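Researcher: Structure for this, please.
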Amino acid sequence: MKRRETLGADLTPIIDVVFILLIFFIVTSVFKKEQLALMLDLPSSSAKEMQVEKKQVYIELNEKTLAIKGKEVTFKNLENSLEKIKDKQKPIVVRIDKDVKYERVVKVLDLLQKYNLNNLALITNKN
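Model: Predicted structure, token format:
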């Protein structure tokens, strides 16, 4: 009498499929860098670099639009968002397009000063 060997399921194709799916999801995923909403042409500067923290508030300003934390807003909505900030030492990062009229820049700076948000950094391109 011959003994029959029990046959087990071959796991090699399953492992191959799992690795292919893993590679697919890694390659197609989007890595989020910053919450930026506007494409800005920043002015150049030779000032020293500052360290970027994750809990900073980003404000972006160009000739026609304004954004905070990656979402386009109006000046009224910006004021409401700034009013809700409890930590007055929270870093505020402002990215301003080099073609923006000075009046719009002053309007944003006035709002920051109104709510005592003085920990301010203006972002520029390196020389």
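Researcher: Any notable elements?
Model: Residues 44-126 form a domain with the Nucleotidyltransferase; domain 5 fold (CATH 3.30.420.270). The chain has a mean pLDDT of 81.
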